[in-house]
Amino acid sequence: xxxxxxxxxxxxxxxxxxxxxxxxxxxxxxxxxxxxxxxxxxxxxxxxxxxxxxxxxxxxxxxxxxxxxxxxxxxxxxxxxxxxxxxxxxxxxxx
Amino acid sequence: xxxxxxxxxxxxxxxxxxxxxxxxxxxxxxxxxxxxxxxxxxxxxxxxxxxxxxxxxxxxxxxxxxxxxxxxxxxxxxxxxxxxxxxxxxxxxxxxxxxxxxxxxxxxxxxxxxxxxxxxxxxxxxxxxxxxxxxxxxxxxxxxxxxxxxxxxxxxxxxxxxxxxxxxxxxxxxxxxxxxxxxxxxxxxxxxxxxxxxxxxxxxxxxxxxxxxxxxxxxxxxxxxxxxxxxxxxxxxxxxxxxxxxxxxxxxxxxxxxxxxxxxxxxxxxxxxxxxxxxxxxxxxxxxxxxxxxxxxxxxxxxxxxxxxxxxxxxxxxxxxxxxxxxxxxxxxxxxxxxxxxxxxxxxxxxxxxxxxxxxxxxxxxxxxxxxxxxxxxxxxxxxxxxxxxxxxxxxxxxxxxxxxxxxxxxxxxxxxxxxxxxxxxxxxxxxxxxxxxxxxxxxxxxxxxxxxxxxxxxxxxxxxxxxxxxxxxxxxxx
Lengths: 95, 479
Hints:
The structure holds two protein chains of two kinds.
Chain A: H1 4-13, H2 20-41, H3 73-79, E1 83-84, E2 87-91
Antiparallel strand pairs in A: 1-2
Chain B: E1 4-15, H1 54-66, E2 70-71, E3 74-75, E4 78-81, E5 91-94, E6 101-110, E7 113-126, E8 130-134, E9 137-141, E10 148-154, H2 161-177, E11 190-200, E12 210-215, H3 218-237, E13 245-250, E14 255-261, E15 271-272, E16 279-280, H4 283-291, H5 297-306, H6 312-319, H7 322-331, H8 338-356, H9 367-378, H10 387-396, H11 402-409, H12 417-429, H13 442-457, H14 463-478
Helix pairs in contact in B: 2-3, 5-6, 6-8, 7-9, 9-10, 12-13, 12-14, 13-14
């Protein structure tokens, strides 16, 4: 059982902030989730190597350092929630 | 302070000199209009996928080879997850678990003593966007996001600020000559993080290590380490715990300032990058990359002093700049007077570069014309004093050959025997009394005549030919 502190740390890593009530709700939900995952834990994985990809393969392809592609600055800035001049802007997060 | 042993490990982030980014085909740029050199992959638009820059891998292989590392030819990448807008994906692609290079070494020289620095790893990753924090906003330029980097990490084997500086200087030289990076600390293409801890001599345990991040000059590396050693020593002597933390160097106060402590440290939850399958490099291609690596400064240094007979000081001055080195090597393809090329480069040309605050590749000066000027002096076509006239012209304008300039300025030296004889005869005739001194003071006589010859020709007579004719004519007159 993961405690409240675990979720507070997780929230910090994700740059999120939860109220005490929200954390309590998350902690309560985890029991249900854990039951689901227990089914997975019953699978015998003895001598099975971890698989990182949907299929195990090795590639040889490398891109040549020649052709360049860019997208218009207007598109970049219009896709950003806020912008100013040539820059994407966000609320300052450093002290 | 002498009671404590200093332990330093260094991490360098080096921007790779590629045309395009490490995982996208957007151009790599510096100083361009913000947010113009980016594409869908850099901005993490849905559906975009990374592709690996072959040149980036080649440059990493060059660096690994020069640093005597074991190279892993099965290239794998990992994700370093963190939520921050300097990378739009929410993670950085890096090589946490399988660095391309490991277990290397670099020999440094500290005040005449050689030391082998153990290098733990070299891995490839991508740079982040540039941020400017102003008032209550952060302005983000994604042009830098995705630029290829190699991170080179030493083991904690350095024992002083001088050793740390010597290591970074040597590494910088190696990467510069390999053309892996332009390694400009002031522009951020080489960034240094230093881990510093101390322990009383005779004890096994170190204090907690303190990391000072983003040092952008050799002098700041030295100052930051010296400050940290003094700060940690005072704390240890006062029985205060040294906190494991990340600090930054403030050069206005010459001190380090805390950024975050270990308790604030993020867990990056690394895992294998699922969008990039492992890539098996062709062993023959890897061998070719190593074989075709540019010559290192250390090899050039030996060649310059042994083969070209430059002083070690002159060789070192030329080798401080890759542009100067390339210019020198091009010029000596066209003249055998290597020392003269070096002398002019180090004195006249360097002074001009300093005045204009520029580098030699930005000047109009052609190495071929510099060599031509030196050859014309060596062949007595022009006098060496005329190089002072010609050099400023060829430094500004490369449209005319040196011979054309010599002819336009009419400064070609007179070497023809008949022409000199015709010039010397009237001088001797008007100095007949002077010849009487020839038996007692021959030098006075010939030098006086030579002086007058130079005066009437504006110094344009070949001195050796002139003197031979003067002696011959004076002696025939006396006989």
